[in-house]
Design goal:
444 residues; alpha/beta; Aspartate Aminotransferase, domain 2; 2 domains; 5-stranded antiparallel sheet; 39% helix; binds pyridoxal-5'-phosphate; pyridoxal phosphate binding
Amino acid sequence: MTNDTPYLFYQSRNPRPFLDHGEGIYLFDESGKRYIDGSSGAMVSNIGHSNPRVLAKMKAQMDKATFGYRLHFRTHPSEDLAAKTVAMCPKGLDRVFFVSGGSEAVESAVKLARQYALATGQGGRYKVISRFPSYHGCTFGALDLTGYEPLRAPFAPMMEGMPKITAPTTYLDRDNLTEDERGIRYAELLRERIEEAGPDTVLAFLMEPVGGASTGALVAPDSYYQRTREICDEYGVLLIYDEVMTGAGRTGTFLAAEHWGITPDIVALSKGFGAGYAPLGAIVASSRLVEPVLDAGGFQHGFTYAGNPLACAAGLAVLEELEDQNIIENAALMGALLKRRLEDLMAHFPFIGDVRGKGLLLAFELVADRGTMRPLAKELNAYTRLVEIAYDLGLIIYSRRTRGGLEGDHFLICPPLIITEPQIDELMELLEASLTRLADEIMP
Ligand code: PLP
C-alpha cells in the first residue's frame, strides 16, 4: 500500500474523493457527485449536515471564546449543556462529565465507577464484565473491554484481561425457548461470570443496549434488560450502558435504555451527542455515585479539551434541535417505516437473512442459507463489495464481517434522524439497485 499524502489515515487501498460539503442527509464530493449519507458517517450525524441554526450558535460562541480551561473559568455552554442533558435523560441520571469522544467516555465511566468503589470502601472491586461481541473503543482500556478479537489481538496483552460473557445473539439460536426465556438465559450468564470472578472483585457490567458495529443492531429480548439490571443490583455491581452509538435519539428515544425502563448507573454518550459538529462526549451518572467521589476529594480524571465552550455550544445546539424539530419522534416513525421497507427486500433477495434494529439504528445480514443462517463465503467479500457498489451509485452504508465467534456480513442502515419519507424512497431505490448488482456478481 502506498500513500501519496502524509496523512496517516488515508488508505489508498480504499480510495475516496475529497469531501466538499454536506446538506441535510446528503454529502457532496469535489466533483459535485451527491451521496445519501445512509450511515450518518459512523452513526454520528444524527441531525444531518450543515444545520444552519447549529452553525449560527457555534459561530456566535466562536466570536466570544473558543477555549477557556475549566480550572480557570466556568462557562455557560458547558453548564447549560449539562443541564439540558440531565433534562433529556431519565430521572436519576443527574450528573454530567464531558469528554471529546466515545472511547474517552467509556474509560471515564470505568474510572468513575472505580473511584466510587474506592470512596465507598469497595476498593477490591476492579473487574468490568463486558460482552462478546461488542465494541467500546480503541484506547487500550476500552479495547480491552471490547469483544472483537481482530481489533484486540494485535495489541495483547493490554490491561489484565477483563471477563466477558456472550451477548444475546438470539436470532441465531435454534432451540425451543421463548424469546423471554432466551433473554433470561443470556442474562444469567452474567450471574455465572460474577460468581466465577468473585463477586467482591466485580466493579461493573458494561453493555451496548443495542449493539452497533459489533453485532449489527442486535436487540436483546426485553427480559434480558430487566434481568441484567436485577443481577447488578443483587451483587452491588454497577451497570454501565455504552450509549455512544444508541444515545442522543438514534433508537427513537433519547437513551435506548428508556425502551426498557432501565436506569443504568452510568451512561456513556458521544457520536450523535455532538452529531458531527464538534468532537464531544459525556458520561451521565447518578448523584448517588458522584457524591461519595466528590466527598473523597473529587473525580481524579479529565482531558484538556473536555467541556470546552465551543464543543459544548455545538452540543447544546444539537440537543435544542433534537427537541425543537421533534427529531427523536421522527427517528421512531421513520425507523419503523424504513425497517418495514428493509423487511420487504427479503422477498426479492433470498440472501438477506435477517433485518433488525430499533429506531434508525437498523441493519440487515446477508447469508448463504436463511434456514440455518449459514454465512456467505468470506471469499465473496460481500461486505466490502456491497459498500463499494452502493458508494458508486451514491449511497453510503456501513458494513462489518463479524458475528461473535462466527463469521457473517452485516450492513448498518442508519441515516440522519431528520430523514423524510420521500428520502427513504430515494435511499431504498439506491439500496435495491446495489443489492441487484451484488446478486448478479456473487450469485451463481
Ligand atoms: N462505544 C461504541 C458503542 C461505539 O460504537 C464506539 C465507536 O464506534 C465507541 C465506543 C468509541 O467511540 P470513538 O470512536 O468516538 O472513540
